[in-house]
Amino acid sequence: MLSVDQARDAIFREISGGGLEVLPLGTALGRYLGSEFRAHRASPDFDQSAMDGYAVRHDDAFSGAELIVAGRQAAGRDLEVECGPKCAVRVFTGAPIPLGASAVVMQEDVEQLDSNRIRIRESCREGEFIRFQGEDHCAGQVLAPMGSFISAAMIGALASQGLDQVRVGVAPAVRILTTGDELVDVSSEEELRPGEIYNSNAKMLEGLVKGLGINAVEATHANDEPGAVRDLVEGALSVADMVILAGGVSVGDRDLVKAALDGAGAKTILWRVNVRPGKPFLYARRGKASVFGLPGNPVSAFVTFHLFVAPAIRKWMGAAQDSWLPGACVCRLDGTYRNRGTRPHYLTGQMSQKGSYFRALGIQQSHAIGSLALVNGMVRVGPGEEVETGEEVDVFPV
Predict the structure, then answer these.
(1) Three-class HEC string of 154-187
(2) Less Cβ crowding at N or C end of the chain, within 10 Å?
(3) How many of the other CB atoms lie within 10 Å of CB of 231?
(4) 283 close to 311: Cβ distance less than 8 angstroms
């Protein structure tokens, strides 16, 4: 069997980018920059006040000095007010610095003598409380490389440059397919019969895909009947860039997915990975479509999605290579665990809010979906390895 890294590398070799598109800035959240982001203009674009107060010539603004208020400049259009010797100009945060001024005195450090005279309480230094042109960044400066994740903060930076559109990597069209006679849609108004369970995988995987910035996702289901599974797979392969199957990829008599993929002309690239949970994971290709076969147990589906599907989607969407896999956080383990098996085990659990410790949640079995409710990280424990309370471990955010 392939290791996790070997399986992931095999998938990466098959995944190519989906191309580029231009989106309105407000809809680009969660996507990746299709080209490097260079500043169109400096920030600040002009010298401006960092405080409400008075713009002055710093040599005139010593403690006890009395100055004439020669004008007023608010944030907005530059009124071209001049600050002459022994004068001050009333300014507000973000206001252009008047001609001749070399510092701003905070209004708390000024005594108002009358309507047009002030007394300086605290001496100031040259340049004090002035935001100088270009001190944040200069025009032409690279602010983010191609492939950078577009966060809300990134959108703010793009908007500050006057951009209302951005070139991004295309998001794939995704189809989620679930199989199994025992699964009932959560929208069903009928009571569950003995042996039936709700189809949690469909909703969970749909949420995981949407969390990657993808809206073009649909989930459909087929019972354990070869013709129904074949039609489901064929229909998805004809319209999707990525097909995510949950269930039916193992070796049981009711595991019909591999046969359906073979019948649809899909080429299996890998099947079964040396990992717990998630050993039956499958990856196949047909034309431009990638197929990810996840085990049907929900924890296995959750773990293999994060190990294999999410990194592949990020690559397809144009993420920079160092963003395909999330960086690990170092935390101290709260609890002791020994992996007595022969496969690396990915523990699912909760990283503390401050990232100081990690606690595995629940019974750590592939069917135990209740423990996933509070999960925000995974920890790899190698075969035969024991990790103890207080030991530092790498936590992979999920």
Answers:
(1) HHHHHHHCCCCEEEEECCCCEEEEEECCCEECCC
(2) N
(3) 14
(4) no
